[in-house]
């Protein structure tokens, strides 16, 4: 088992929880991870940093008699959320929080790496501490800069996401699509600014953007077959500066989700229709822009995922659950489109959902999660390719 004790795991998690950083700004996190890794047995390890992706860390573990390389990825970024957990180890970074549990992901990955630094694996291993999952697609950035080449290219890739909906320590997975694809959408409104007292001399973009939001939320509910699944969420609404000025500008940021790319394309087309309609009815400019980047659906490789599920059901049956697809996005979907692998859930048993300012994953998930993953990876290396 991992040479890190439960107390070590909890301390690492809490240290990381206090220093959450946004996509591509994970500098303190990077330094913390390097410091922890430097304390591991270095005999089999090669640590690699990426000048063009300076907060990323790759660690290669030399196998004793390798026939393949197994990759394990953990995302390291946080969200612009003001923490409201009231925990004694709450975020020290104002307005930033590990509201998606990536502190848990990093802790589990460190523990798994620590184990294999003490117990040389038969096959090579590659640990990827990845920046920028929540936005800016760190996995795609790394892949496109050629990181995963030669001895740094895994033959199969694994990664997890924490799930507040599953009991602490439970592993969840499914064949096929685990997570939705997502496309980011920004919408800019251009009208005419003016005095609050003379609305007839202005063109109020708070009203136009609000009408847009109202109409947008009829797309899924009124024009999509209810047995299919799609999501449109606008999480950011910026308009205006003071109560007595009519703003001539508004800016919205949202996200579109679908389990098939065709659903996302359908929603994009309908959003464009609504934008054109609002522009006409409010006599203003409405400019939507769309960006998918690396947020492809997370498609679990059939052979590797069957192997994963069969192993978990046979050896951790009381700790394993087949799950339904989720409308979360994950840029691990991009990496899995290039390198076969499996993403799975780790239950953290919390009443608060992912991205909540009160998310508080159960630390009881850490030890059983590490053990299940170490056991599976050792099993994976016993099998011939
Ligand atoms: C697991 C998770 O919460 N992932 C994020 C991925 C965000 C992708 C992109 N920035 C977007 O907003 O579509 C999620 O929000 O699902």
From TrEMBL:
> Which prosthetic group or cofactor does it need?
Mn(2+)
Nuclease listed as a keyword: no
Q: Pfam families, alphabetically?
A: M20_dimer, Peptidase_M20
Q: Work out whether the entry's keyword set contains Chloroplast.
A: no
- Entries under InterPro entries matching the protein: AcetylDAP_deacetylase, Amidohydrolase, Bact_exopeptidase_dim_dom, Peptidase_M20, Peptidase_M20_dimer
Peptidase M20 dimerisation domain segment(s): 181-278
* MF (Gene Ontology): metal ion binding; N-acetyldiaminopimelate deacetylase activity
EC numbers, comma separated: 3.5.1.47
Annotated active site: 75, 134
Which residues make up the binding site for Mn(2+)?
Answer: 100, 102, 134, 161, 355
Query: What keywords were assigned to this record?
Result: Amino-acid biosynthesis, Diaminopimelate biosynthesis, Hydrolase, Lysine biosynthesis, Manganese, Metal-binding
Pathway(s) per entry: Amino-acid biosynthesis; L-lysine biosynthesis via DAP pathway; LL-2,6-diaminopimelate from (S)-tetrahydrodipicolinate (acetylase route): step 3/3
Described by its record, this protein's role is as follows: Catalyzes the conversion of N-acetyl-diaminopimelate to diaminopimelate and acetate.
What name does this protein carry? N-acetyldiaminopimelate deacetylase
Which organism does this record belong to? Answer: Fructobacillus durionis
Identify the taxonomic lineage of the organism of origin: Bacteria, Bacillati, Bacillota, Bacilli, Lactobacillales
């Amino acid at each position: 088992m991992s040479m890190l004790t439960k107390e070590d795991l909890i301390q690492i998690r809490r240290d990381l929880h206090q220093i959450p950083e946004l996509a591509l700004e994970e500098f303190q996190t990077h330094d913390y991870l390097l410091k922890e890794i430097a304390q591991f047995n270095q005999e089999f390890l090669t640590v690699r940093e990426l000048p063009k992706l300076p907060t990323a860390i790759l660690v290669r573990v030399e196998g004793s008699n390798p026939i393949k390389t197994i990759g394990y990825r953990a995302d390291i970024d946080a969200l612009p959320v003001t923490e409201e957990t009231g925990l004694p180890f709450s975020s020290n970074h104002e307005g930033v929080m590990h509201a998606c549990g990536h502190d848990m992901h990093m802790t589990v990955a460190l523990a798994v790496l620590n184990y294999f630094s003490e117990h040389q694996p038969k096959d090579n291993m590659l640990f990827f501490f990845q920046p920028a999952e929540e936005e800016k697609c760190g996995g795609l950035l790394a892949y496109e800069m050629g990181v995963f080449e030669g001895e740094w290219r895994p033959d199969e890739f694994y990664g997890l996401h924490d799930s507040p909906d599953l009991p602490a320590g439970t592993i969840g997975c499914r064949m096929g699509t685990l997570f939705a694809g997502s496309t980011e959408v920004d919408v800019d409104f251009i009208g005419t600014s003016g005095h609050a007292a003379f609305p007839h001399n202005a063109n109020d973009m708070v009203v136009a953007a609000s009408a847009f939001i109202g109409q947008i939320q009829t797309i899924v509910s009124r024009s999509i077959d209810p047995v299919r699944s799609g999501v449109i969420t606008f999480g950011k609404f910026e308009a205006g500066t003071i109560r007595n000025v009519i703003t001539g500008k508004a800016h919205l940021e949202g996200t579109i989700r679908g389990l098939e790319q065709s659903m996302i394309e359908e929603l994009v087309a309908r959003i464009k229709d609504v934008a054109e309609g609002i522009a006409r009815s409010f006599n203003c400019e409405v400019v939507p822009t769309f960006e998918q980047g690396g947020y492809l659906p997370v498609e679990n490789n059939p052979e590797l995922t069957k192997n994963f599920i069969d192993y978990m059901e046979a050896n951790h049956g009381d700790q394993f659950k087949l799950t339904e697809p989720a409308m979360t996005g994950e840029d691990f979907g991009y990496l899995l489109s290039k390198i076969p692998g499996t993403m799975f859930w780790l239950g953290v048993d919390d009443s608060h959902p992912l991205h909540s300012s009160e998310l508080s994953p159960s630390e009881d998930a850490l030890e059983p999660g590490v053990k299940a993953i170490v056991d599976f990876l050792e099993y994976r290396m016993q099998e011939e390719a």
